[in-house]
Amino acid sequence: MSPNPDTIFPVTGCKTVTYVRPTINNPNIIVGDFTYFSDTDFEKHVLHHYDFNGDRLIIGKFCQIAAGVTFIMNGANHQMNSATTYPFYIMTGWAQTPPTNEDLPIKGDTVIGNDVWIGQNATLLPGVHVGDGAIIGLGSIVSRDVEPYTIVAGNPAKPIRKRFDSEMIELLLRLQWWNKDISEIQQLIPLLTNSNLEYVKTILKKLS
């Protein structure tokens, strides 16, 4: 049986792991094929995501998102260039014209690359960009961009180390295995899961 990205529960007999893309209703949440969440109702974990801000959450393919992960969107930010930060404009009965985006600390889209592993209970703040192959440690607060194939952890999350040397990272970014068709990925799995990284590097050089 071939993998189907439209399957909601991809683990046989398990109703607590979901492929995210087929569960999404919000057009401003864009998720690639085979990205999974170790829980259900992913959209409940995308907070303060209001249409009037126009920001998007964009997540690549084959990401692994643990339980309790939260994405804080730009709607959480209050106006700070005024005497009060109180958002009268969203509360019923108060006479405030909504501030323009220029008066709000809008950080733009939140973008997660491909094959990113986000550990349990991590929180990603508005506008961060996380590169392909990165790992975010359990409970981390990600407030800054994360480079590809970098492990970050802590509050605020800081780089711990690169997963591979620069040559290996360049080869993987060039390969972009997540963009290949299913049959090609099936053939690459033995290579992608091989712990002999020098051997993997040798083969990747031949494929590039």
What is the string of SSEs from the N terminus onward?
EEEEEEEEEEEEEEEHHH
By helix and strand content, what is the structural category? alpha/beta
Q: What oligomeric assembly is this protein in?
A: single chain
Tell me the strand order in the biggest sheet: 1-3-6-9-12-14-15
Strand content: 15-25%
Tell me what the structure shows.
With 208 residues, this protein is α/β, with parallel strands linked by helices. It has three helices and 15 strands. The protein has helices at residues 166-175, 182-192, 197-207; strands at 18-19, 29-31, 36-37, 46-47, 57-59, 64-65, 70-72, 110-112, 117-118, 123-124, 129-130, 135-136, 141-142, 150-153, 158-162. The strands form three sheets. It has a seven-stranded mixed sheet with strand order 1-3-6-9-12-14-15, with no helix packed on it. Strands 2-5-8-11 form a four-stranded parallel sheet, with no helix packed on it. It has a four-stranded parallel sheet with strand order 4-7-10-13, with no helix packed on it. Strand 14 (150-153) and strand 15 form a beta hairpin. Helix 1 (166-175) crosses helix 3. The chain is globular, with a radius of gyration of 19 Å. The two termini are 30 Å apart. The model has no long low-confidence stretch (mean pLDDT 95).
